[in-house]
Amino acid sequence: MDELERLREENARLRSQLEKERKSKDREERGYEERGYEERGLDLEEYRRYGRQLIMDQIGINGQLRLKKSKVLVIGAGGLGCPAIAYLAGAGVGTIGIVDNDTVDESNLHRQILHNTSTVGMSKAESAQQFIRSLNRHVNVQLYKTRLTPTNSFEIFQSNGGYDLVLDCTDTPATRYLVNDTAVLLNIPLVSASALKTEGQLSILNFKGGPCYRCLFPLPPPPDSVLSCGDGGILGPVVGIMGIMQSLEAIKILTGAYDEEGKFSPALTIFNAYGTPQWRHIRMRGKKSTCVACGDSPQLSRESIENGSTDYVAFCGRPTVVAINPSERISVEEYAQLRSSGQEHVLLDVREKSQFDICSLPGSVNVPYSKLRKTPLPDLKEPVYVCCRYGNDSQATVQYLKQELNLSKVFDIKGGLDRWAIDIDASFPRY
Ligand SMILES: [Zn+2]
User: Where is region (Disordered) located (predicted)?
Assistant: First the structure.
């Protein structure tokens, strides 16, 4: 069999050689001119692949060759990073670096379009690489399966001979400031976007004398106001639109749309899916002279970042964690026993109404945590058991009811309804 296989391969090789010689003879006979189309950097398959954008004045052959030479670093292969990466890879960006240490979760799939049901549990960076490989083999993919930290950010930005452009597709304030500061100190332009619920923002930063992220947002949002998608909710197309906008601006920057003097003016673009109009465009001034990163007397340096004296976690703060007394908490098992014993009690569910509508325990009373202080409460006949999704808001509620309303028999159900679904009732939805 091996011999047969070898002969088949030999035969195929000879045939292909013969075919090549025949074609070249044809060309000679018909007088075709050798123009070296492949030598200038694109192979014939790439001409076909990129044809529809190649014939646009804004791109053209020079734009395509610029894309191919470009190296773009995408921080985060999530809701923003996925659509951005898909379009950058499709457009033929030569090198795409991806920084992500997370793994694909089922709850990512409604918006993170590079991942799919079969890559759940896989590293997001690898899942993204798999997608790019099947889309466009001409893209060189570099993976950094790590969290971006003050000790590795400069190294990563400068690896591969240095990236030309960075896309900030993260969702934590501390990382955003780190991405910005590294980009400013290495003089790399940054396309930054964010999205939450039904709204998004986009801006080109550290570009042609324009502002940086710190010029726009000198101070981080208060830590308790930061919702991540875990509890904040996000509509897939909203974050998708913002990620696609990032890829569009990246392509424009890389192909020279802003090269000409006066073509670029800094702006903050705001998208509101349910607003009229949906888009607002706020023009911005140039960089702030007082900015600690890019101003006249910057206070940040590579050294201060790498040695930790610029402390991002302290700067952005930590959300206040309510820790109540262990005697004020019961496990889901204990609560299940209490329910089956028929003991009279009130079950107060403090999740938002949209979550309460998805699923709830029979007999529970819904008062969203966000409305606790603003609405008259129903009659809470003690004992009161408080639950929420994961068991954080419920603890804060227990504290509030005891301290502000002077109730005494109030208990938190540890781990919330998510824990209930895991340990007690497998038919109760986890979302
Ligand atoms: Zn600045």
Answer: 1-38
